C-alpha cells in the first residue's frame, strides 16, 4: 500500500513539474497567451497521434504502394484512350458509310442475351431451347454464341422462346464460310463437319502453311452470320484423299455439354 501511494505521488509530482515548466514558458514568452498555447499544443498532439500509425510503414512498403498507384493510373489512362479511340473509329465508319451510301457492313451486329430453358437427353448434342423469341427481336437463322464462341443458329422461333441448332449437331444444315487468320493474310474455307470435338474446314487449296493455334472466324459471306464471330483455333492440318486440298481441324474452347447462357447475334438492319 505504501509503495502504491509513493508511485502515485511521483506521478503527480512529475505532472506538476511539466505544468510548471509550460506556465513558465508562457510567462517568459509573452507572444503567446495561455489559451493559444494549449490549443496549438493540443493540435500538435492530435496530429502526432493520428500520423503515428503511418510512420510504421517502411520505405519499401511506401515505394510499393506508390508504384501500384502509378500503375493503376496508367491503366485508367489506357481505358480512357481506348474509349476515345473507339468513339472516334465508330464516328469515322458512320461518316464513310454515309459518303459511300452503304447501308450496312458485314460486321454490323446487335446482341440479344438469353438463358437456356431446356435440353433433351436424346438430342443433347443437337439443340437446346432458350427464353427469347420473336417478341424479343429473334428470328430464324440468327447466329448464336456462348462464351465468345459461335455455337449454333436459331430455328423454330416462337413468340417467347426459340430453338438453337448446335454446331455439334452432326446434321447441322448450314455450311459456314470461315477464314483462318494468318500473320500476313487470310485463308478462306467452309466449316461443314463436327466430329470427336473438332470442326473440319474444307475447300482450302492455297499452298500456304497453317500453324496450329491460328484463329478461325466467320467471313460474313451469306445471309446468316456476320463477320468476325470466333469459331475456334486450328488444332491440326491434313490433306484430302487426293492430296489436292487441305482439311483443317478446328477446336472450340466452348464446352458444348455445359451451356447455360447464350447471345443471339442479329445482323445489322435485319
Please describe what this structure looks like.
This protein has 270 residues and is an alpha+beta fold. It has 2 domains: 2-56; 107-270, Rod shape-determining protein MreC, domain 1 (Thrombin, subunit H, Beta Barrel). It is 32% helix and 30% strand. It contains 3 helices and 12 strands. It has a 6-stranded antiparallel β-barrel. Strands 6-7-8-11-10-9 form a 6-stranded antiparallel beta barrel. Strand 6 and strand 7 form a beta hairpin. The longest helix is centred in the first third of the chain and has 42 residues, at 59-100. The radius of gyration is 36 Å and the shape is elongated.
Short overview:
The chain has 270 residues and is an alpha+beta fold. The protein has two domains: 2-56; 107-270, Thrombin, subunit H (Beta Barrel).
List the helices and strands and how they pair.
Elements: H1 2-28, H2 34-51, H3 59-100, E1 109-118, E2 127-130, E3 143-146, E4 149-155, E5 162-166, E6 176-181, E7 186-195, E8 198-204, E9 215-218, E10 230-239, E11 246-251, E12 261-267
Antiparallel strand pairs: 1-2, 1-12, 2-5, 3-4, 3-12, 4-5, 6-7, 6-9, 7-8, 8-11, 9-10, 10-11
The average pLDDT score comes to: 76
Q: What characteristic shape results from the CA principal axes?
A: elongated
Helix/sheet category: alpha+beta
Strand order of the largest sheet: 1-2-5-4-3-12
**What number of structural domains do the residues give?**
2
Q: How large a portion of the residues is in β-strands, by DSSP E? A: 25-35%
Main beta sheet strand tally, sense and closure: 6 strands, antiparallel, barrel
The residue fraction in helices comes out at: 25-40%
Secondary-structure element series: HHHEEEEEEEEEEEE
Question: Can you count the beta strands?
Answer: 12
CATH architecture title of the largest domain:
Beta Barrel
The third-level CATH topology of the largest domain is Thrombin, subunit H
The CATH superfamily of the largest domain is identified as Rod shape-determining protein MreC, domain 1
Number of helical segments with 4 or more residues: 3
The stretches of 5 or more residues where confidence is low (pLDDT under 50) are none
Query: Which CATH class of the largest domain is shown?
Result: Mainly Beta
Using only C-alpha atoms, the radius of gyration works out to 36 Å
Amino-to-carboxy terminus distance: 96 Å
Amino acid at each position: 500500500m505504501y509503495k502504491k501511494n509513493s508511485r502515485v505521488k511521483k506521478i503527480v509530482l512529475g505532472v506538476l513539474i511539466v505544468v510548471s515548466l509550460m506556465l513558465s514558458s508562457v510567462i517568459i514568452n509573452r507572444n503567446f497567451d495561455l489559451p493559444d498555447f494549449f490549443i496549438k499544443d493540443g493540435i500538435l498532439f492530435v496530429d502526432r497521434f493520428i500520423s503515428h500509425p503511418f510512420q510504421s510503414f517502411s520505405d519499401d512498403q511506401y515505394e510499393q504502394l506508390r508504384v501500384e498507384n502509378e500503375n493503376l493510373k496508367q491503366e485508367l489512362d489506357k481505358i480512357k484512350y481506348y474509349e476515345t479511340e473507339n468513339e472516334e473509329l465508330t464516328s469515322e465508319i458512320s461518316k464513310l458509310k454515309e459518303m459511300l451510301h452503304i447501308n450496312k457492313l458485314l460486321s454490323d451486329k446487335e446482341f440479344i442475351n438469353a438463358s437456356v430453358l431446356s435440353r433433351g437427353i436424346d438430342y443433347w448434342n443437337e439443340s437446346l431451347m432458350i427464353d427469347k423469341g420473336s417478341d424479343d427481336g429473334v428470328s430464324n437463322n440468327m447466329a448464336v454464341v456462348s462464351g465468345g464462341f459461335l455455337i449454333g443458329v436459331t430455328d423454330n422461333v416462337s413468340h417467347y422462346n426459340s430453338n438453337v441448332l448446335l454446331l455439334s449437331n452432326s446434321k447441322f444444315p448450314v455450311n459456314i464460310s470461315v477464314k483462318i487468320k494468318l500473320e500476313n493474310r487470310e485463308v478462306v474455307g467452309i466449316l461443314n463437319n463436327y466430329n470427336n470435338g473438332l470442326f473440319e474446314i474444307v475447300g482450302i487449296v492455297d499452298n500456304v502453311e497453317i500453324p496450329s493455334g491460328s484463329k478461325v472466324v466467320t467471313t460474313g459471306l451469306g445471309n446468316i452470320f456476320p463477320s468476325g464471330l470466333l469459331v475456334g483455333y486450328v488444332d491440326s492440318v491434313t490433306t484430302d484423299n487426293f492430296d489436292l486440298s487441305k482439311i483443317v481441324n478446328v477446336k472450340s474452347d466452348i464446352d458444348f455439354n455445359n451451356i447455360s447462357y447464350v447471345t443471339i447475334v442479329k445482323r445489322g438492319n435485319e
